[in-house]
Fold this protein.
Amino acid sequence: MNVLPKGVRHLPGFLDRAAQQALVEEIRAVVAAAPLYRPQMPRTGKPFSVRMTNCGDLGWVADRTGYRYQPLHPETGKPWPAIPETLLDLWRGTSAYPHLPEACLVNFYDETARLGLHQDRDEADLDAPVVSVSLGDACLFRIGGPVKGGRTTSLKLVSGDVLVLGGEGRLAFHGVDRLYPGTSALLRKGGRINLTLRRVTRPMAL
Ligand code: MD3
Ligand code: FE
């Protein structure tokens, strides 16, 4: 049985085609202001196959010195553009979390890009979920438990799908094994965009 970790919700087809197209236009504007760049693995400097950028007050970056969130694009030195209101609404509607996200990581996969199994734990607030949106070509996504080397389950993520990763699922190991090129016409030149909305800092108590 392919059961997702507790706290992980897959919402297939959450965005219809019109909503996906509108979101792609908003991401084009983000990328125009904050160009995609290729992060590097800490220490080794090995380049990621996935290209990335961010919007929001903070963006996730990776270079030889480590992984971190920072307010400026590592190549342009400019602040990240704002998170589009459409995505804030999506967070309000799916996260069940009472504070807004501070970061939206934009991952771009060409047909050869992959993302190895990893945990997302650079956020100080691990109580908040991560909300992920898939656009463009489908991919094979893999998710396991909180310990490396345990059982994993795989699912295909297609354009318009949303994943909400909270609770016990928040520290699950996960990655993208492969793309399925040519499975979507959303992006004229193909490929896949994944958006992850994240709370980074711990909100002040009310
Ligand atoms: C499970 N992105 O950006 S999205 C990442 O498709 C990342 O680009 C993948 O892993 C992608 O860090 C997967 C689904 C996802 C995102 C965040 C998670 C799954 C997660 C955080 C915790 C557990
Ligand atoms: Fe991740």
